[in-house]
Amino acid sequence: MVSRTLNEDVSVGAAYSAIGVVLILAWMDATMSVLQKYAESHRQLYPGSDIVVVQSHMHFFWSSDIEKKKTLAPVADYVLSRVYTRGLNTSGRGTIVHTFSN
């Protein structure tokens, strides 16, 4: 599993500044070049938001629960750090989760 954050310094319109993170959970074995198109669409809709793309591969589904948690922990930590501080939503910015299925 590979995750990447695509972030640019873009002026944020007031209507869309409420979205802090867009989390894209891809279908199995999706290529980053295809996922980049979805990321760019979200970038146009929510300029200034962090876009996090998570790819999945067949071997991930056969790994142990401990290995899955270890792999996904950095993504979860990043998203939570962008939205919550000490359990309180202090940023006032939401998260969009865009999921795909095979």
TrEMBL record:
TM region(s), chain numbering: 12-35
Keyword annotations from UniProtKB, A to Z: Membrane, Transmembrane, Transmembrane helix
Pfam families, sorted: DUF829
UniProt cross-references to InterPro entries, sorted A to Z: DUF829_TMEM53 (IPR008547)
Name of the protein: Duf829 domain protein
Species: Moniliophthora roreri (strain MCA 2997)
